[in-house]
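Mods, move this if it's the wrong board.
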Amino acid sequence: MMDYDLFVIGAGSGGVRASRIAASHGAKVAVAEEYRVGGTCVIRGCVPKKLLIYGAHFAEDLDDAAMFGWDVPEKRFDWAVLRDNVAAEVNRLEGLYGQTLGNHKVEIFHERATLVGPNEVKLASGKTVTADKILIATGARPFLPDLPGIEHAITSNEVFLLEELPKRVVIAGAGYIANEFAGIFNEFGSQVTVVNRSETILRGYDEQMRDRLLQISMAKGIQYRFNSTFERIEKQDDGSLKLVMKGCDDIIADAVMFATGRVPNVEGLGLEHAGVELGDKGQIKVDENSRTNVPNIFAVGDVTDRVQLTPVAIREGHAFADSQFGGNPWTVEYDAIPNAVFSHPPIAGVGLTEAQARNKLGSVKTFTSDFRAMKNVLAGRNERSLYKLVVDSSTDEVVGIHMIGPDAPEILQAAAIAVKARLKKADFDRTMALHPTMSEELVLMR
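Not the wrong board. C-alpha cells:
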C-alpha cells in the first residue's frame, strides 16, 4: 500500500490544479512546496506584475484627466505604498490557494521534496513517503548569464521587493517580460534603457505589432541599445552600477534587470534516482499525456518547457488529473493559444502571425485598422492602435488576430474564440458592430 495516490512536487498553478482535481475524484493527494503556495504566477509573476501595470497606467490617466474636466492639482507617486499593497494582495491570494487545497483535503508539506525512486519521495525533514503516481510541477526561474558582477543584477523576482525605485534602470532582453517592465519603470518616472543582443524586440510576435510598440516606446522616452551585450557589471563607490558593454557605449545605472529567458527548475530534484529523462534545454521530457519515460512519473507546466504560460500549466494539470483519476482521458490542444504583452500600450495575439501564415499557407490576405482610440483623441495623445486579421485566402478562415492598443488583451480573449472555432472572414463581416468601441474595428475591416 502506498501512502498517497498522488504526490505533487510544486504548488504553482499546474500543481495546485492537478492536486485539487485529483482529490475531487477521490484520490488521496499530498503536495510539497518549499517556497510559497501559488507559484510564480501568484507570488512573483503575472498577478503582482499586472498590479504594477495597473498602477503605472495612472501616470498617463492622470495627465489625460485634465482634458476630461478633472482638476488633479498634484501628481505624486509613492512606490512603497504600491509595493506594500501588492505584497498584501499576494499574501491574501496565497492564503486562498492554501485554503482551496485544504478544502479538498490535500495534505500540504511546506518543505522541499526530492525523488529517491520511481514511487518514493524524501522530504527536507527527513520523512520518506510513497505514492502511486508522482507529478513534478516545479516551474522555471529567470536565467542569469555567467558574467563578472552578475551578483549586482536583479530579475523580475526581485522587482517586487525593491526598497526604492531606481532613477536609471537598464533591462537586458527584449521579450515580453523586458518590455512589460520597461513600460512599468518608465511610467513610474525611471529612465529606462533596454539592451538587446539582436535588433528585434518580441521575437515571434507579429512584425507590425512589435514595430508599433517600438515606435510608441521610443516616443515615451524608453531608450534602446541593439546588437549589444554585457561584458561585466561594476559596483561604483556611490552605489551606482557601471555596465561595461560590447556593441554600445558603457552605461551608468542604478539597477540592471535581466529578462533573458527562463530555465526549468530541475536541479536537486533527484530525477536521476528515478531515471527521469531531460531534454536538451534541461526540461523534463513528457508525452502528450504529460508522462515522462518513467510510467508513473508525470510533469506539467514550465518545467516541461512546452508553452510557458500559466493557463497552459493549469490546463495540463487538469487534463492529467482527469485522465489519471477521473476516468475521463483528454489531452491539451496547443493551437490558437491567446497571448498578451502587458506593455504600454499592450499587445495581444492569437493564431498565426502574417509571416507564419505565409510560410505555412502560402496565399494569405491581411486586413488592418490603424486608428486613434477615442479617449486618446480628446486627451490629445497621438498614440495609435493597430488591429490585424490574417486570413487564409483559399478558405476565408481567420487564422490569426493581432492587436496593439488600450485593453487589447481584454478584447482578444473573446476574439480568440473565433480563431479557435475556425470562423471565416465572412462571419466577422456579418457581425454587427458595437459602437462606439475600439473592438468594433474587428468587424469593420474590408
